[in-house]
Design brief:
- The structure is a homodimer.
- Chain A has two domains: 47 residues, Arc Repressor Mutant, subunit A; 129 residues, Orthogonal Bundle (Tetracycline Repressor, domain 2), CATH 1.10.357.10.
- By secondary structure, the first copy, chain A, is mainly α.
- Chain A has nine helices and no strands.
- The model of chain A has no long low-confidence stretch (mean pLDDT 93).
- At the A-B interface, helix 5, helix 7, helix 8 and helix 9 of A face helix 5, helix 7, helix 8 and helix 9 of B.
- Chain A binds a DNA duplex through helix 3.
- Chains A, B: InterPro entries: Homeodomain-like_sf, HTH-type_TetR-like_transc_reg, HTH_TetR.
- Chains A, B: Keywords: DNA-binding, Transcription, Transcription regulation.
- Chains A, B: One of its GO terms (molecular function) is transcription cis-regulatory region binding.
- Chains A, B: It comes from Streptomyces fuscichromogenes.
Chain lengths: 187, 187
DNA sequence: AGCACTGATGTCAGGGACTGTCATCGCGTA
DNA sequence: TACGCGATGACAGTCCCTGACATCAGTGCT
């Protein structure tokens, strides 16, 4: 192997992130992304299902880290603590804060990209629900714990990439979790 | 007014729901939807921003009912109980169960439609967060309560439209809420 | 060497979503 | 009557995305 430049997918992803940042998502065509990566539009669509997917290549690793942490948590742990373990495990596979901020800025700039982000999160929630069920957690409790975990993740993650924030992601996730507990105990 | 048939938007929505149910979302073109409603494709896009939006016309009424209930809840109520009031208020603006099942079946049949459903829910969550903040709930607590409320809504709603289910939506929402409380108190 | 085979890419044609622009037409109003 | 307004139609065009076929370097077999 090696007739063409290697790392085709990564080159496309980098080109896309650059162009989306330079001119915006709508003002960038798939043909331009492919050209910057030294490829053709047709080849782009052989690596990514659509124009948005190029920004979401890491979702699979995220799912794997989360569900593995859930599966490996001690059998005695309560569902919400299993969630906590999964959240901390997620933090390990994230890029550095600057990259996360750049990507988050692009994704937040266009509703189509937000939609994709949301369905990735929902897919993750479904996988976590399944992992919890596999531990014996009842159906509805598993679903609610997973959704609540996504809420904690969202809040903690957004705090992590906020401009002035200094603390690290695991700490912020733990803090958001205890805030959720306080809120839901309030009634 | 009255030079053309009235209720253009509703005719388009009905035609779309029919066609999506008959042949599926992908196998239906916007031109076909417009033709069944006695209009042209160009006119469709003057009433709905894209092919998916025609299924989500009720989102605005939902947001209004929810945020009004939140705003009108007694000042002494805890955030999570305010959420409960909002959830019950939502139930009032829903169509009958059969229609909801039909629409849910179409939306669930294609990822693009699921994406749109998710961003509508996220928009609703943001509006509820804002309504809670307006009541004096701290930022993060408001966001977490809103997200948790969406989780409760999702679980309760899906239970409501499940094939064998007999109970009514408000009861199922209340039940899901108490289950969430039980889960988050478990750690 | 000669050969077929494989796999990633290029090329081309085309459908369908969506937009900009201008024309049309019935109605209200001066 | 003349004029403007507002919803719609007609038409051209861009871009997203797909199917079909050709190309071409490497691999293994003979």
């Amino acid at each position: 192997m090696g007739r063409w430049e290697p790392n085709t997918r990564e080159r496309l992803a980098r080109a896309a992130l650059e162009l989306f940042g330079e001119r915006g998502y709508e003002q960038t065509t798939v043909a331009e992304i492919a050209r910057r990566a030294g490829l053709t539009e047709r080849t782009y669509f052989r690596h990514y299902a659509d124009k948005r997917e190029v920004l979401f290549g890491g979702a699979e690793a995220l799912r794997e880290a989360f569900t593995r942490a859930v599966a490996e948590a001690p059998a005695s742990a309560a569902p919400i603590d299993v969630m906590a373990a999964g959240l901390v495990a997620i933090a390990a596979v994230f890029p550095e804060r600057g990259t996360a901020r750049q990507r988050h800025s692009v994704v937040g700039s266009h509703p189509e990209l937000l939609e994709r982000e949301l369905i990735k999160r929902a897919t993750l929630a479904a996988a976590v629900t399944e992992a919890l069920r596999a531990r014996g957690v009842p159906d509805h409790a598993a679903a609610l714990a997973a959704e609540a975990g996504m809420a904690v993740f969202k809040v903690g993650y957004e705090r992590w990439i906020a401009p002035a924030e200094q603390r690290e992601l695991p700490d912020l996730l733990r803090e958001s979790l205890s805030e959720l507990k306080a809120v839901t105990a309030g009634g």
